[in-house]
Specification:
Number of helices: 11
Helix content: 25-40%
Distance between the termini: 75 Å
Number of strands: 24
Structural class: alpha/beta
Strand content: 25-35%
Length: about 450
Amino acid sequence: MKKYDVVVIGGGPAGITCVISAHNTYPQKSIALIRTEEKALVPCGIPYIMHSLNSVDEDIAPDKLVTNTGADLIIDEVVEKEEKKLKLKSGEVIAYDKLVIATGSLSILPPIQGARKEGVFIVRKDYDYLTNVREYAKKSSNIVIIGGGYIGVEMADELLKEGKTVTLVEMLDRLLPTTMDHEFGNKAKEILEAKGAKFLLGQRVDSILGNNKVTSVMLNNKAEIAADMVIISVGARPNVTMASGFGLAVHPRNGIWVNEYLRTFDKDIFAIGDCAAKYDFFSGEFSNVMLASTAMAEGRLVGSNLFSIKVMRRFTGVLGSFSTKIGDTAFGTSGLTEMKAKEMNMDYTVGEATTVDRHPGTLPGASKLYLKLIFSRYSHTILGAQMYGGDSVGELVNMFSVMILNKMTDMDIDNLQIGTHPLLSASPIAYPVINASVDAIKKWYKYET
């Protein structure tokens, strides 16, 4: 039996980051990371194995991220825990002082009749499985995607680049339905339709037809769509099987119960990443947002605080900051959408701005940028931001995340001292972050008078 000061179970972004953070904070401690996969994937890169990457091998997180810290990387499966000892499938027993569970999430397979036929796939973080998905897609012509969230839309974009006929089915009436307002989902739809995609929104797949192999899908309105491949991307659930087996408190839909420092009810066991319960920044209710950025933040925090609290945390909940790129257009969102603000009965104001992300706008590489901000009408604090445009959107999302977390007001933003450059940003006169805030301020004064 070998004993470690720290054992991390799970080789995704949360687990890897936790190992790095633990080593940086406690360099004398012995650390091991246990994962079942021979090759660990970069989860956010999975859609891009369809075209942009030449193989699944190009989407692998290097083992040296773990081993360069001096930690042991153990490819095995934990099958049992007794006191502070872990029994592995190989028969080896590992003892620990502190244990971190980072088992991630599992893709949902909805109860669709025929969903287990040949040619039907979910999006799994598994090297061999995804290699098969990629190979199957190469020889397929008519591909139906079920689910219009980020992964479904990114898959559609990639498969269109491969010259495939793509039909996307989404139960709700728009794309990106849970994270962006209608106009952003409509913009994504417009871009993909121009590339040849077909959309069936507000409909669902009731069954997948064919003998042993998929030949078509049947919708709830009895329409039949030809398909020689189906990709299902309708969300994920926390992987709490191991934690439950360890006797830890778990919520079957929302994850392992943890406190604000990600500690479970066992003082020596922590849970991080998708498998750990999350709470919404605004409502305090459970959040189903699963992001690598959130997982890594949790990994850093726990890695630093394993043996004593070195990094203080005022837990404010999950904000939800997303970005993607569809065709040549980047999309980003952070915080509340207008749709969500209405659901929560918030008293809010919207500020909008449209500009070009270079000045003058005739410079090479210039892109139109549209920005929509949500402010609290009572406190004037920023609640949310959505945008689409050029690649600058990717960093604008992070700027707004900081603004929302720090409860900046419209006047705070109006008085920002910014740096701009013709080749890098919009004009300081037409800077969209400030101009959208000014638009909200003008509406506020109009409302008051």
